[in-house]
Each structure stands twice: as C-alpha cells, then as structure tokens.
Design a protein that fits this description.
The complex is a heterotrimer of chains A (159), B (667) and C (176). Chain A has helices at 2-21, 38-49, 67-81, 86-97, 112-135, 146-158. With 159 residues, chain A is an all-alpha fold. The longest helix of chain A is centred in the last third of the chain and has 24 residues, at 112-135. In chain C, strand 2 (94-100), helix 3 and strand 3 (120-124) form a beta-alpha-beta unit. Chain C has five helices and five strands. With 176 residues, chain C is α/β, with parallel strands linked by helices. Classes of the chains: A mainly alpha (159), B alpha+beta (667), C alpha/beta (176). Chains in contact: A-B, A-C, B-C. Chains A and B meet through helix 1 and helix 5 of A and helix 13, helix 14, strand 7, strand 9 and strand 10 of B.
C-alpha cells in the first residue's frame, strides 16, 4: 500500500514540479552585451530568429527570456564575432541539439513531403478544378442560321 | 448538494441526447411523425439540463466550494469574482462543459427558430447534433467529470496564478468555442442532407447564417487570442504558428471557404458535393483542434495539462464522427448532381478559385502542424524537426497573394459569364490607389524587404476594391448624389457586410506587412537621463527602481517618449525575479497608436554601465486587430440581413424556380 | 459510387493512424544529436571535495560512466535522486555529476542531505559545457561507454521504472 501511494505521489509531484520548472517565459529577453559592429550584430540577430528556444518550445531564442535561450544567444554572438559563416553557426548548434533547433525545417528526404506537399496539393487541386470546370463549360452561342431567323420572324410576326 | 444536482442534470442531459440522437432518425426512416417530433422537446430539455449543470458548477466556483476537485485545483478564495467565474472554463473539465452547453444552445436554436424547415430535415439535423452532444457528454462523464468531489476538502484552492488573471484570457475561450461549436451546425445540416440525398439553394440558405455566425465568433476569438499574446504577455509577436493557434486557424480557413462556396449553392445550385464536404471538414478540423489542445500529441505553449486516456477517447470520437460522415459522403455524394453551369470567367469561377486557394492554404497549415508528429511517429522518436514561421512564410504566404489579388475582382464579376476587361476597367481607381501607395512607400522606405512594398499595395488594392464595389452599387458620380445616398441606404445589409469584411482583410494585410517589415528595434545600455531615438521617436530613460511584488521582486523602469519634442507617452516596463525556482521574466510596456506601437522592455542593471533596454517602434501593429474587428462587424451586419435571418427561407416547390426567384446576387 | 468520393475518407484514416501512434510519444523530448558520438571534449573543475570534476578524457578509458546533470535548485532533481542512489547501490557503474548553474555550497548540502551517488562532480557555473552536451533542461542523464561515446540520453527525472526499463539494459548493452 505504501509503495502504491508513494508511486502515485511521485507522479503527481513530478508533474507539479515539472510544470513549475517549465513555467513559460513571458516576455522578451534583453541582453546586456551585444556585438559592437552593427553589421555583425544584425547578422547574429537574424540567425537567432531562426533558432528555436528549446525550453519554451515555440519561440525563437531571439525573443525568449528563458535562461538557456540567453546562453545560446551568447554562443551565437561569439561564433559570429569569431568569423563563422551563418551556416557554420547553425551547424554548430545542430551538432548539439539536432535539426529540432532550426525554426526552418531543412530540406531532407524525410521532409520531402513537408516541402513538396503544398505545391503538389495546389497542382492536384488545379487539375481537379480544370477537369470539373471543363465538364460544365457553357455552350458557345452560335448566331442563328437563316432557317432559324425565318422561324423567329414567323413567331414574332404572329404575336 | 447543488454539485450533485449538477452531476445529475448532466447525466439526464446525456440520456436526453441519446434519445434525441436515435428516435427522430428512426422516425424519418419509418415516416413516423411522432418519433420525429421528439427532437424539438429533447433539444430544449438538453439545454435546460445543461444550463442547470453549468449553473451548479458556476455556483461552486462563485462560492469557492473547494470540496470539488476542479474548483480546488483552479480557483482560490482571494481571486476577484471575474476570474472565479472565468476559472470555470480555464480548465479541461469546465471548458468541456461550456463546449456542450454551447452545442445545446445551437441545437435548441435550430429547434426553436427552424419552424419552417421541412420536418424530416429538422429531425435529421437535430439528431446529428445530438449524436455529437452524446459523444462529448459521454467523454465528460467517463473521463472528465467536473463535479468530482475531493475528500477531505482543502482549506483553499490552488489557482492563483497571476499570469492567468487577465480579461483577454478570460473571454477568448468562449468565443473560440462559439466558433468551433457553431460549425457543428453546418456539419449537422450536411450530414442530414446526405441522408436525405438533397442539397438545394434552400438548404444553403439555411446553412449560411449558422456558418456566418460561427465564422464571426471564431474570427473575434482568434483575434482576441493573438491580441492577448501580444499586449498582455508581451511576447513581442502576435502569431507564432503554434499548434494551438493553427488548431483555431484551420477551421477558420475551411469555414471561410465554406461561407463562399455556400453562396454558389444558394445562388446557382452548383458546387453541392464540394460544399457538403467542406461543411464536414470544417467541423472535423474544429474537433481536431480540440484533440490537439487536449491530448498533448503536439508540444505547445498553450496546451492544457494532458492525459493520454483522454486523448484516446477524443481520437476515437474524432474517428467515429469524421470517419462516419466521410463514409456517408463517399456513398451519397455522387447522387448530388451539380446544377448551374458557368463560364471560366464568372462570379462562380472566382469563388471556386477562392475555395481552391483557401483549401490548399488550410491543407498547408494542417501539413505543417502535423508533420513533426508524422516524422516522430515514423522514426519512432529518433528524428524530430521544428516547423516554424519560416516554413509558413515560404508556403502559406505565396498562396495568399493570388487570393488577395482576386478578392477585389470577385465581387464585381457577374454570375454565369463575367467580363474580365469590364471588371478591370472599373477597378482603375483601386489599381491607381494601390500603385500610388506602392510608389510612396518605395520612396519613403529606408530598409526592409522589397516584397513588403507589394504587401502594402495589396492591402490598398483590397480596400480600394471594397470601395469600388460600394461606388458601383450606389452608382456614385453617375447619378445625383442624393440618389446614390438613397441607394446606399437601401443596399442589402449582406452587401455592406461583405464589403466591410473584404476591406477589413485589407486593413489586416496593411498591419501585418508594416509591422513585420518595418519594425525598428534597439538594444542599448542606458543611464537615467539618456535618450535613444527609434524610428523618429525619442525614448528618454527617467529611472529604474527595485520594488517588491506578490511573489517576486521587480525592477520597474520608466521611459518618457516624445516625437519632435512633443511628449507622447510614458512607459513602465518591469523585469521580475522569482526566487523559487530562480527565474527572471520581463513585462513589456506597450503604448498603441494609430501609426504604430511604442514598445519597451527593460533588463537587469549592468553595474555602473546602466540598464539594458530593448526599445521598439512597430508600425501599424494595432491595424491587425482593428481589421479583424471590422471583418467581424461586417459578418455581423451581413447576419442581420433580412434574407439571412435564421429560418427565414422556405424551400420552394422546385429548386430551379427557387434559384430563379432569388434576388440579384448581393455578395 | 465514384472512387473519388472516397479520397477524403482514406486521407483521414491515415491521419487518424498517425495521431494514434502519436499519443504514445512525448513531443517535449528532443532526441539527442550526440547519440553514438564522442562526449564533448570539455573539462569541468570539481565541486570542492568531489575531485577531479568532469574530465572528458577520463570517459574514454574503458569504464562505463553515467553522467547526471543536476542542480540543487531543481525540484525534479530532488525527486530523481533516490533513483540515482539506487543505481549506485545495485550496479558498479561509475557515476559522475554535472552540477548545472549552482552554488557549490548548496550543491554539497544537497548531496549531504539526500546521499551522494557520484564519485566526482564537475561544476558548470555558466552552463556552457552543458550546452556542449546538448542539455536543455535539468535533470538529464547520459550513459557513456568505455570508448567515450554517448549511448543513451534520458531527459527529465528518472522514474523508478526507468532503472530496470532503460538504464540497466543500456549498461548491459554497453558492457563489452
């Protein structure tokens, strides 16, 4: 009985504490240290926007005020200042956290359907549409033939 | 005692829902009018019992009865009354109760005002509506009972999270639910029509008001949600393409498509099978949204605490509802033969194009939302990707461009066979205005993407298009002004509504474009007395003081903002430190103006170098919500149109003559 | 019946299957990019008395090592700790702590109070080395084989059942 209760309490406590620990960061980060060179700082800022804050799940590290996001920003600034290219900075973090850290999913075999999906759907829809519209095409109006004209005159005259 | 009565009322509502789901349907199959007649009183009864159950739980929240588990977990005796009430739907169990209550309100509304619906159609609609209600009620009773007691009762509740005490948070879920649940009406009508094997203009006229009402609620619900994230949470953004945001956006896209395709069914007796499918899919996406928020399959900042057992139940229900209705569709849809024919250039064709783009956009959002889960599932958790805003910018946005371009053309196009050259010539004013605005913006702009200039042009094009539509209808400048005015007064409200909704989209486009392309931002160290210029606005740092908060200490900064020496606003951002667990958060200070938002965030002091501050100017930011509000008002005005009044249309003797009798197209 | 009418039904059925499998997965757990990769080559100074700290080269000297990332301010770590103690009791595996952004005095008090399963503890005051390990929250647990390769990563607190279901099998598999 004790064990069962303990197990239950363990789960409840773990959930409660995880929730506390994961309390969302609620606003924008403000860094004390930025790069002196405005061009480099702009590049670093641009890179940060494309990197996911791992603890807040759906924000980029550029705005997240989570502590880990701040640490990652420091690393991005360091790498940029050290002369890394954008790709090298991204690769540096991907090596540690995987593709998950990128806000823009990379082109790979496994993301083929993700990137190819929208254009393919658009084209398929277009084909279905074109076929459907062709079926219900309005018959083109032909001018009346001589015989029909005569018939029409006959009808209107008798009115 | 009252709590137990509430539980009992909930059980009775479930029994009534089962009755309402089965007997009327049997009645329609056997031609038994008595069985069909069960539907109406059952729908009213369901509403009464759910009101009782809701009232009982509300009573518990208001009187802070902590012997009820949900109330103990989500309320607190020291909470302001507003948040005690809102606490009812701020949790899983209570929000589901609100969900079924709204479902019952819609059901009772059909029972009440649907007096001129054919008796079999009404019986079928109410029966389908009750099937949905039975599913949700059994879900609540089996896995999420809001009336469960907690023994012994705690002395006080747990729910005093100040972050969640906000009017925006308190009122945006009910609006979202009104939208989600409102689409159940379109669903019930679609399934009833499939059973009946008949979709005609009268059917479309019965469905449209419900769809329009749901669309209005969902529009305002989504706008409130993003407004809350931006102004109250100060997240620095207003849309994150988060799974929970997408969950509400997908039904909105599908619902918008449905709204337009139903027009074609109503006016031209065409696109029937597609419209029925859209009605099913729109509500299915609403259910999917519920599943995503409550099952925890996708990580999201907003998700409720999740429980796999509940996830399995909702998924089972989802499969039953969606699978069942689509099976019915697969079998019955082929008998719905399209009627009216139209040329490739016509109002109908424009609406078809609208549906094509909206449906593709909706599918794109669905793909992006579910893809991480798909990869996770197929790779067994070894391969995960993030699908963030850059993906949607690359896929969703390009679909919107042709849609928005077309939006100004469509309403000017005539039915059956349109005259593209004629329409374009009437849009010279809008085109000129748009080009002029692009030139001005091009000239003024110092940086930012070139594409943004085009975005501004698009927004102006839409507003110009809506104005042109109005000018055409009232024959402005072609007849005496008094005549034009009289025509404007006499214009159907549905026309006013459509113009406002389209113009509202234009305003939203301007807001999105300007705020995302030309937001200017500075991160700097400031001493008291220092000034920083951001996009022509001068932020003067007055002081920063340390002070206590309820369960944190806060650094409170003060900025005075002026432009050309004229004082504009005072901003007081905060940086908070919570001791356990050690956590620093910031509270942004925002001052909205017509031209854009002033936005300041303060960081912790950096020794004697001063304080770090992050200052923004976000041009046209609040236009996004102003535009959404105008769209909603447009929808509401359209809803008040005599011809849209719920239950006003009658099914004509034959669909063909009905179509001919319909007044000239207004939308 | 037309086959086209069935297209929506088929697509939705496939989606439902994915969603069902998805219910069993945790979206918040990020797979480690470092599985089967050598441990990051960074050393950490020790917590006082827990020498020699975390020395990357030591992890490649033939002994299987369990590296646990923890902090005294972290609530879930407190819940996890009995499981770490149990692992130390029932296995011979070497356990090294990576103390994340912590006050050394508080960290030592934590171990004194709840027990000390670690042979040495490296103190990561800035959190930089943890990032090299791909850590994104505390606690996290890594298993490193004798060649200095990471063979297992566990995110979040170890639950009692994780010992027999995850840790012990991984240790067994890593034992040459």
């Amino acid at each position: 009985m004790i064990y069962g209760f303990g197990k239950y309490r363990f789960a409840a406590l773990a959930v409660a504490l995880l929730l506390l620990g994961a309390a969302p960061a609620h606003a924008i980060a403000v860094d004390a240290v930025t790069l002196q060179d405005p061009a480099l700082e702009a590049r670093a800022r641009n890179l940060m926007q494309g990197l996911r804050c791992l603890v807040c799940q759906n924000q980029s590290i550029e705005i997240s005020d989570a502590e880990l996001a701040g640490d990652l920003r420091r690393i991005v600034r360091e790498r940029v200042a050290a002369g890394d290219t954008d790709d090298q900075v991204r690769a540096h973090l991907v090596a540690r956290y995987g593709d998950w850290v990128l806000m823009r999913p990379p082109f790979r075999l496994s993301t083929l359907a993700l990137w190819g999906g929208p254009p393919v759907l658009l084209v398929l829809g277009g084909i279905a549409l074109w076929m459907g519209l062709r079926r219900r095409e309005v018959p083109v109006l032909q001018p009346l033939t001589e015989a029909e004209q005569a018939k029409l005159r006959e009808i209107t005259a008798s009115d | 005692m009252i709590i137990e009565l509430g539980h009992f009322a909930l059980i009775l509502a479930f029994v009534l829902a089962l009755t309402q789901a089965s007997l009327p349907l049997i009645g329609t199959a056997r031609g038994n009018a008595a069985l069909m007649a069960v539907a109406r009183p059952a729908a009213f009864g369901q509403l009464v019992f759910l009101l009782l159950a809701f009232g009982a739980l509300m009573y518990g929240f208001v009187t802070s009865d902590f012997s009820v588990r949900v109330i103990a977990a989500n309320s607190h005796s020291a909470k302001p009354m507003l948040y005690k009430i809102a606490g009812l739907w701020g949790n899983h169990e209570g929000s589901l109760l609100l969900w079924v209550l709204i479902l019952a309100i819609f059901g009772a509304a059909v029972a009440g005002v649907g007096g001129n619906l054919p008796i079999t159609l009404r019986a079928r609609v109410l029966s389908v509506q009750a099937m949905i209600a039975s599913g949700f009620l059994s879900f609540i009773l089996a896995t999420s009972n809001p009336f469960a007691r907690l023994i012994p009762a705690p002395l006080d509740g747990n729910g005093l999270n100040p972050l969640l005490q906000d009017p925006g948070l308190a009122f945006h879920p009910p609006f979202l639910y009104l939208g989600y649940v409102g689409f159940s009406m379109a669903f019930s009508f679609a399934v009833a029509a499939l059973i009946e094997g008949r979709v005609d203009p009268a059917w479309a006229r019965w469905v449209r008001p419900w769809t329009l009402a749901a669309w209005c609620f969902l529009t305002i619900g989504i706008a409130m949600g993003s407004w809350w994230a931006y102004y109250e949470l100060g997240w620095g953004g207003w849309w994150f393409w988060d799974p929970v945001e997408n969950a509400s956006f997908m039904p909105w896209l599908a619902g918008t498509a449905l709204l337009h395709s139903a027009i074609v069914v109503e006016k031209r007796d065409a696109l029937k099978s597609w419209t029925v499918l859209l009605a099913i899919l729109t509500f299915s996406l609403s259910l999917l949204g519920t599943f995503i928020v409550r099952s925890g399959v996708l990580s999201s900042v907003h998700a409720f605490a999740t429980d796999p057992a509940r996830g399995v139940f909702i998924l089972g229900f989802l499969v039953l509802v969606v699978g069942g209705s689509l099976t019915l569709y697969a079998i019955r849809a082929p008998i719905l033969k399209g009627g009216g024919i139209f040329a490739p250039i016509s109002r109908e064709a424009a609406l078809v194009l609208n549906n094509w783009l909206l449906a593709t956009a909706c599918a794109t959002v669905l793909l992006g939302t579910l893809y991480p889960l798909l990869m996770d599932t197929l790779s067994g958790g070894a391969d995960k990707v993030t699908v963030g805003a850059p993906y949607y910018n690359a896929t969703f946005t390009p679909l919107m461009v042709p849609l928005l371009l077309m939006m100004a053309l469509g309403p000017l196009m005539s039915w059956k066979r349109g005259d593209l050259a004629g329409v374009l010539s009437r849009l010279h004013f809008a085109l000129g205005l748009s080009v002029l605005s692009m030139l001005v913006v091009w000239y003024l702009r110092e940086e930012g993407p070139v594409l943004a200039v085009f975005g501004i042009g698009l927004g102006v094009w839409l507003i110009g298009g809506a104005l042109t539509d109005l000018a055409e209808r009232i024959r402005l400048f072609r007849v005496p002004f008094a005549t034009s005015f009289a025509r404007a007064v006499g214009l159907p409200r549905a026309s006013w509504g459509a113009m406002m909704a389209h113009g509202g989209v234009g305003i939203v486009v301007l807001g999105i474009t300007a705020s995302s392309a030309w937001t200017v931002e500075k991160i700097i160290l400031m001493q008291p007395g220092d000034e920083a210029e951001v996009s022509g606005y001068v932020y003067r740092f007055i002081r920063a003081e340390q002070g206590p908060g309820p369960n944190y200490t806060a650094l409170r900064g003060q900025f005075e903002v002026s432009r050309n020496g004229v004082p504009l606003a005072s901003l007081a951002p905060e940086a908070r430190s919570y001791p356990t667990p050690p956590m620093d958060t910031t509270e942004a200070a925002i001052y909205p103006m017509l031209s854009g938002d002033l936005f300041a965030v303060i960081g912790n002091p950096q020794g004697d170098k001063g304080w770090s501050a992050r200052l923004y100017f976000r041009p046209l930011q609040s236009w996004i919500w102003a535009g959404a509000l105008i769209m909603t008002i447009g929808g509401a005005i359209s809803l008040s149109d005599r011809r849209h009044r719920v239950g006003s249309p009658r099914r004509a003797a034959s669909p063909a003559s009905d179509g001919a009798a319909a007044p000239l197209a207004a939308e | 019946m037309r086959w086209r009418s069935f297209v929506p039904l088929i697509i939705v059925s496939l989606l439902a299957g994915v969603l069902f499998v998805g219910l069993g997965l945790d979206p918040k757990i990020v797979p480690s990019a470092l599985i089967d990769k050598p441990v990051p080559q960074f050393d950490l100074p020790p917590l006082p008395g827990k020498e020699p700290g975390l020395i990357a080269a030591d992890l490649a000297k033939g002994e299987i090592t369990l590296v646990n990332v923890w902090a005294s301010w972290c609530g879930p770590c407190r819940i996890e700790h009995p499981q770490l103690m149990e692992i130390a009791n029932i296995t011979k595996v070497r356990m090294i702590g990576l103390n994340y952004k912590d006050d050394p005095a508080k960290a030592l008090a934590f171990l004194q109070q709840l027990g000390d399963p670690f042979v040495s503890v490296g103190a990561d005051r800035t959190g930089r080395v943890a990032i090299e390990w791909g850590v994104y929250g505390v606690p996290e647990t890594f298993l490193v084989d004798g060649k200095g390769r990471i063979v297992l990563k566990h995110v979040g607190p170890l639950r009692p059942e994780d010992i027999s279901e995850k840790i012990l099998p991984a240790i067994k598999a890593a034992t040459p």
